[in-house]
Design a protein that fits this description.
With 163 residues, the chain is mainly alpha-helical. Helix content is 73%, strand content 0%. The chain contains 6 helices and no strands. Helix 1 packs parallel to helix 6 and helix 2 runs antiparallel to helix 4. It is globular, with a radius of gyration of 16 Å. The model has no long low-confidence stretch (mean pLDDT 90).
Length: 163
């Protein structure tokens, strides 16, 4: 891993912009079971694109374009947090990115309704929330953890059924 450099703020900015897009997209998605939302149709694919930009910026500025370096750094952070040296979180992030891109493609290009059958939708929601909670709360530092917790909480609250 490279030392923190001048592009480090780009890693943080793209991470927080991606989190914001995910939050807004999930909240909008929860409110539009059948009808379309022009804002959602912009925010959801934008979030997927921002996640890819974030990964590319992180690889360029923190990992010297090395997958092995990213796995090693993830393993170090996981060991520091949980006492277990495991770098598999990188692969989970790849899977999240692919899933989001496929979902954005399904909605934006194929023009399918955003919400999938009940079980598939809840699996997507829970996995994305778990990953974002880990990224924005568990592995975050300082006051940004509060922002991450509030964001994740707002998304979870948006999933409640309206009466």
């Amino acid at each position: 891993m490279q030392p923190l450099g001048p592009l480090q703020p780009a890693v943080l900015v793209t991470a927080w912009l991606t989190l914001a897009a995910w939050c807004l997209g999930e909240i909008l998605r929860a409110r539009l079971p059948e009808r379309k939302s022009p804002l959602f149709e912009v925010v959801w694919p934008l979030g997927a694109a921002l996640l890819l930009v974030h990964i590319l910026v992180a690889f360029a500025t923190r990992h010297d374009w090395s997958h092995d370096a990213a796995v090693a750094e993830t393993a170090r952070q996981t060991e520091e947090t949980f006492g277990v040296r495991w770098g598999g979180g990188v692969w989970i992030n790849y899977a999240l990115t692919l899933w989001w891109w496929l979902d954005a493609f399904r909605i934006s290009i194929l023009r399918r309704p955003p919400n999938q059958p009940w079980v598939g939708e809840w699996i997507r929601r829970v996995l994305f929330l778990f990953l974002w909670f880990n990224a924005a709360v568990v592995f975050a530092q300082g006051p940004s953890r509060i922002v991450g917790a509030v964001a994740c909480g707002a998304v979870a609250l948006s999933w409640r059924k309206r009466r």
